[in-house]
Backbone:
């Protein structure tokens, strides 16, 4: 099995596991009903380490799983995670990721970006959802929660050899 | 046309991205028209196994930690009892705890027995993995007799509160759409003043409800804190189930009806057990 395929399978599995945790255990640690998006943090890490191809495929696969567990229309989370994975993957090799500041900044931007795409989808496709009101309380809470957790998750994922920086052929 | 294959080879990432994007959009569009409902059911059945497993593992860990803590506590109490006869106090404490638990269970049983419908008791095993949607997953599915559209209630604070309705049923689990969801509508009535209206979830995602289409002449009769119940109209929810209490009242000059902000009876953040009502079998 090639390293790229391993990276794809591992990152998809990790994001899917994070999604299942989000639906079961993370509600115990919700702040005002808002849970962190561990799947997004993992996706950002995978994207900046492995590039667009792995990230968009993992984002898509994990997003479909999230859609199956949610009341969202099939494809909603898949689209959001595919776009985030693709765009973040474009920055591969061009960002120096320190242990704290960059994970925090990258995660904050990713959360804002996810909120923006979600809101556009909810508005344009008339999806019956609470939406993700840009600049509303829940968004700020999720942003902060994700930012706090990002350095720890980045540090943990950094230990995985399969997710070390990509080889150029895959992209 | 040698151009297309070489273009695809050169722009593998971009082409894959475009394909995935189109696939997502197609899925959303078809999903909204319920064409992909069956695959979604199959998928939900499959992945809810993981939710059930994680829930079970979580419970196992909690039980184990609780058992270890309990063991330590018992050991220290036994040591104390050798000197100060604490054993009797421990028995007494346990007895009080059992009495309290017994009372709670009797209360739940009493409420459940008071239901005029056949019901299915279920436990909440998961919630929506994202913050944009607000669903509840329960551990009862089609094999337990669950059907789509069944109303879901819970007992909290001595009242029978409306939770929502079943929207997706898989083999061993089901997804419940809570009444706080913006696309949820319940035909409702003010319990004392008897004015009818329509209760909907809040579009902002807050755990509040909005009761609209209440006649404006109710403005002098509606009391703050008045109970809102289901009216039974629309036949989706049975009559007389508590929905919430009136918290705010807005009477806009140019509108013919009132808008009431309603605080739900059910605290959705601490919902553990629910009852799914089978309105077809009394």
Residues:
């Amino acid at each position: 099995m090639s390293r790229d395929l391993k990276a794809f399978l591992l990152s998809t599995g990790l994001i899917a596991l994070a999604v299942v945790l989000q639906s079961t255990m993370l509600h115990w640690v919700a702040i005002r009903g808002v849970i962190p998006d561990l799947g997004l943090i993992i996706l950002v890490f995978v994207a900046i380490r492995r590039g667009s191809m792995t990230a968009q495929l993992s984002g898509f696969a994990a997003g479909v799983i999230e859609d199956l567990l949610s009341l969202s229309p099939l494809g909603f989370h898949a689209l959001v995670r595919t776009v985030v994975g693709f765009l973040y993957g474009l920055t591969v090799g061009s960002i120096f990721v320190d242990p704290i500041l960059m994970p925090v900044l990258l995660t904050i931007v990713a959360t804002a970006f996810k909120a923006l795409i979600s809101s556009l989808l909810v508005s344009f496709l008339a999806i019956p959802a609470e939406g993700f009101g840009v600049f509303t309380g829940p968004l700020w809470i999720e942003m902060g929660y994700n930012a706090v957790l990002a350095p720890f998750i980045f540090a943990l994922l950094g230990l995985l050899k399969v997710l070390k920086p990509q080889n150029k052929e895959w992209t | 046309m040698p151009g297309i294959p070489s273009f695809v080879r050169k722009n593998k990432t971009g082409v894959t991205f475009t394909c995935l994007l189109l696939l997502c959009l197609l899925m959303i569009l078809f999903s909204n028209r319920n064409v992909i409902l069956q695959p979604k059911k199959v998928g939900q059945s499959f992945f809810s196994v993981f939710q059930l497993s994680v829930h079970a593992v979580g419970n196992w860990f909690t039980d184990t930690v609780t058992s270890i803590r309990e063991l330590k506590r018992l050991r220290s109490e036994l040591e104390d009892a050798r000197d100060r006869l604490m054993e009797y106090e421990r028995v007494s404490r346990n007895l009080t705890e059992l009495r309290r638990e017994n009372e709670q269970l009797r209360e739940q049983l009493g409420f459940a027995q008071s239901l005029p419908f056949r019901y299915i008791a279920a436990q909440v095993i998961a919630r929506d993995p994202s913050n944009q949607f607000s669903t509840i997953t329960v551990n009862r599915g089609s094999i337990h007799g669950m059907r789509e559209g069944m109303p879901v209630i819970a007992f909290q604070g001595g009242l029978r509160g409306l939770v929502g309705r079943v929207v997706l049923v898989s083999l061993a689990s089901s997804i419940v759409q809570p009444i706080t969801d913006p696309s949820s509508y319940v035909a409702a009535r003010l319990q004392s003043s008897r004015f009818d209206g329509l209760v909907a979830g809040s579009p902002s995602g807050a755990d509040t409800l909005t009761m609209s289409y209440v006649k404006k002449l109710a403005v002098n009769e509606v009391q703050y804190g008045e109970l809102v119940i289901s009216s039974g109209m629309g036949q989706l929810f049975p009559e007389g189930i508590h929905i919430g209490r009136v918290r705010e009242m807005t009477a806009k000059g140019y509108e013919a009806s009132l808008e009431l902000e309603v605080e739900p009876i059910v605290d959705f953040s601490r919902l553990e057990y629910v009852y799914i009502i089978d309105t077809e079998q009394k």
Chain A touches chain B through 57 residues (CB under 8 Å).
